[in-house]
Amino acid sequence: MLPSPTGPCQTSSRSLVFGLGPSITSEDGIITGAKLPTGRQILRCMLAKKPGANGALSQFEATKGVLEQVRPFYKKANIPMVSDKRACHKMVDLVNANNKLRKISQAKRSKDLAFLASMKTDRVATFGVLGKKLQLKVKRREERQAAAAARQSHCEKELEEMTAMSSLVSESDEEPEEDKDDAKEQE
Asked: Please, what's the largest Cα pairwise distance for the chain?
């Protein structure tokens, strides 16, 4: 790992933005890539423009700037865009929703994350029923086992029938030999 020109790497919780990862930089102000921008990219771009700060753009100007960066991606993909007013409104709603999430205290977030992790592992114990996906997996596994058991019992029956048939065939083969012996004795 190369040393940073600004000093050692800091991974403190202060440098992380909840829901967005590492802190917002000026590089986030430019949307790049070959695919349609994600909500996260748009949100990071909006936050990089810092609407409402001293000397910064107003929220409307910031959304217009982000919209101008997003528009070429939609043109390239040949996807019609909603009106500028509606697109700006959606971006403002995205920022407001993120701000609402960021207002949740760190203690509450960690408690919620712990609960979420326990739900993923202990959902059977918590709810007493299986999740839909898990229930489907169990059902399919039981069906496969039942089908395999049916195939095996069918194969065993066929094997018994073949064994019985082969014993009948071998008995019928033995009878003519006895008949031949009887015929030789009579001569």
From this structure: 129
